[in-house]
Amino acid sequence: MSLSERSYEEKRGFIRMRVDTMVTFTKVDGKERYEGRCRNLSGAGMLLETEKKLESGDRLRVTIPSEGPDFSPLDAVVEVVRVTPLPNLHFFRLGVVIKKICN
């Protein structure tokens, strides 16, 4: 399927894959570890959910564990570009852009 044949939602350079996996992350300038869930992933970014309140512009080191011995965990530096509070769930939904793959 070419870019011109995709639906409106998928007119982007990288198709989003729905995932539901745990992630760990730290702020690039910090040491405290946090947890969350990755809800979707593309070659350019991720959608994360976490209890930790973050701000647009925060840089994080995110690790997504591997599901098997044949694959390395994904270790990346990302930048938060969107924060959406989910008050009923006491979570935040974070749109992040991948800046660097570290492994």
TrEMBL record:
<dbReference type="Pfam" id="PF07238">
    <property type="entry name" value="PilZ"/>
</dbReference>
<feature type="domain" description="PilZ">
    <location>
        <begin position="11"/>
        <end position="98"/>
    </location>
</feature>
<dbReference type="GO" id="GO:0035438">
    <property type="term" value="F:cyclic-di-GMP binding"/>
</dbReference>
<protein>
    <recommendedName>
        <fullName>PilZ domain-containing protein</fullName>
    </recommendedName>
</protein>
<dbReference type="InterPro" id="IPR009875">
    <property type="entry name" value="PilZ_domain"/>
</dbReference>
